[in-house]
Design brief:
The chain is of the alpha/beta class. 42% of the residues lie in helices and 13% in strands. Helix 7 (143-155) packs across helix 8 (187-205). 2-phosphoglycolic acid binds next to loops.
């Protein structure tokens, strides 16, 4: 059932590359972007791709098939707020997505309430908000599930049922991000979490909750993307480091595309099995 729902709601997986504080120069950013656009060509029909460079580079990248997002927006919208960059500013430079509430920003003091304001502003500006949630650690008692619930409830607190299609939930357990051993969550645990999040989204938004895509981030690589997509019950990924080189990003595209193929094959097999007809 989960498998069929997953296919129905996400005709194309979404892969959002988070460039974080890289690269150092505009020239490198241009080169990286064009490299990614080139490798993406082959996957265009099966995958939606976005990259989120540092905001300074957004206006100078000549927008191609890979959409551009920003990694953060200001809580404020205008006025005397030195150093801030608003959602409408990045939107006017060509960004169509914004990551909001990444754990690296939450670690700098961003609260759920601040995240909620930012999400509302991103949506109001006509961009898609990629809202990050994730527990710092997992405890035996399952308290981390309450943390996820609370983050979702508060961070999406200003999103209406009519706006849910403009929001994506990125499940990013903090313990899986940036690991030097590149070990991500297991697809089994991810599937459990995807079911849990989906159920909660429906509790909060009713059937509209079904429209919110759930993606996963945290040490996604070419090696684990196939299994995570095939068995993890998510609609895409938010890779960090794997999106910093065209070749490694290509690996994630390719593994995801393989998983899509496999899921399609399986769903065809499921639909072929029809109950015997009575005479
Ligand atoms: P990572 O980062 O893929 O390098 O672990 C993911 C993220 O922080 O969004």
């Amino acid at each position: 059932m989960i498998l069929q729902n997953h296919m129905k709601k996400t005709p194309k997986p979404l892969i959002v590359g988070n460039w974080k504080l890289t690269p150092n120069t505009l020239n490198e950013a241009k080169e990286r972007y064009l490299g990614i656009v080139k490798v993406y060509k082959k996957f265009k029909s099966v995958i939606d791709a976005v990259v989120c460079p540092p905001a300074t580079f957004i206006s100078s990248l000549k927008k191609k098939d890979v959409a551009i997002g920003t990694q953060n927006v200001s809580f404020w919208t205008t006025g005397s707020k030195t150093g801030e960059i608003s959602a409408s500013m990045v939107k006017s430079c060509g960004a169509t997505y914004s990551i909001v509430g990444h754990s690296e920003r939450r670690a700098m003091g961003e609260t759920d309430e601040v995240v909620a304001e930012k999400v509302a502003e991103v949506v109001k500006c006509g961009m898609i908000a990629v809202v990050c949630v994730g527990e710092a650690e997992r405890d035996e008692e399952g308290n981390y599930l309450e943390i996820i619930k609370s983050q979702i409830k508060k961070s999406l607190g200003r999103v209406s049922k009519q706006e849910v299609h403009k929001v994506i939930v990125a499940y990013e357990p903090v313990w899986a991000i940036g690991r030097t051993d590149n070990v991500a969550i297991t697809s089994h645990d991810l599937h459990q979490m995807a079911i849990f999040i989906r159920k909660y989204l429906k509790e909060v938004f009713g059937i509209a909750g079904d429209l919110i895509r759930i993606i996963y981030g945290g040490s996604v690589t070419a090696e684990n993307a196939f299994d995570l997509y095939l068995n993890g019950g998510v609609s895409g990924f938010l890779p960090g480091r794997s999106s910093w080189e065209a070749e490694t990003f290509k690996g994630v595209f390719s593994a995801t595309a393989e998983a899509v193929k496999e899921l399609k094959k399986r769903s065809r097999q499921v639909t072929k099995v029809k109950p015997p007809r009575r005479k």
